[in-house]
Amino acid sequence: MPGSVPNSLNGWWCNQRDEYAFLGFGYEVTACQSRAKMTAEFRDIRQRFRGRYVRIYGACDRRGFYNDVVEAAWTAGVGVHSLIWFGFQGDNSWRRRKDELFSVLFSNPKAKFVTRVVQFGSEPLFDNAINAFELASEVRRAKKSLKQIGVPVTVSDLAYSYQRGYNSGAREVLAEVDTVHAHILPFFSARASTARNSWPLVVEDLNWFIKNSGGKKVYFSQSGWPSETSSGVRANSPRAVANVQNEKDYYTLLDGRCSYFKNVPGGGVGWFAHIYSDQHEVGYGIYNRRGGLKFPFSPRTSC
């Protein structure tokens, strides 16, 4: 990062066509990590894995927390895909989170220089957290507001969620988002078996987004294969295998399709590994609960 905050975003971000292959990690913030801890882990993402971005997952409702995210990201030299978390309670706490996030985006001079995009929810359509027509309206209003500081807006969700509600408002959501943030989780398919055999499932969802998004840039904002199952991670196929080898094989599969992702219409596809550590979410971390790497991980960021 420069020694002082620039005056303009002109020329600041890379062209989206260069944002393909491995981008970084999903980063769970429910633990409300300190600024120091986030700085250290964001640096690890940047320096050890060459990650360019951190995709926020979950929510910390400590006032000013996103200021800490911004400062940690600035110090570490990474961008942030920020998130308005809806949660699973069916309440309106997301409105308070939106207001808090927007307040920081407009008041912290560094915020727009690390915030690549605001995600309006993580699977809000799948969870029925908000009416799809209302979500489309919220995205539209957010785009109008954040256009002042050059921050785009999206919704992070599954192809299935859009397909299920395509004629009930989901089409309007897809039309409103600036970029497509797709959840690609083939482990949960009813046709899942092993990670090595999951490419047809990945392409099926990707092709749906390509066909229906009007040529928009696609990111795999949440993508991975669990190394173990838990109460919140259960397969829908009796043949789906969850272990460390399959988690490794899934990322090897994505990494091996670098040239394919580079040439996807709309500017290529960039993907996030979900998630940084099993201390955040059991089964999906690159690091295990003891802080050790589960397997060697050095995916390509270009090809």
From TrEMBL:
It comes from the Eukaryota. It is an enzyme of class 3 (hydrolase). It comes from Amanita thiersii Skay4041. GO terms for biological process: cell wall organization; polysaccharide catabolic process. Glucanases play a role in cell expansion during growth, in cell-cell fusion during mating, and in spore release during sporulation. This enzyme may be involved in beta-glucan degradation. Active on laminarin and lichenan. One of its GO terms (molecular function) is glucan endo-1,3-beta-D-glucosidase activity. This is glucan endo-1,3-beta-D-glucosidase. It is found in: Cell membrane. GO terms for cellular component: cell surface; extracellular region; fungal-type cell wall; plasma membrane.
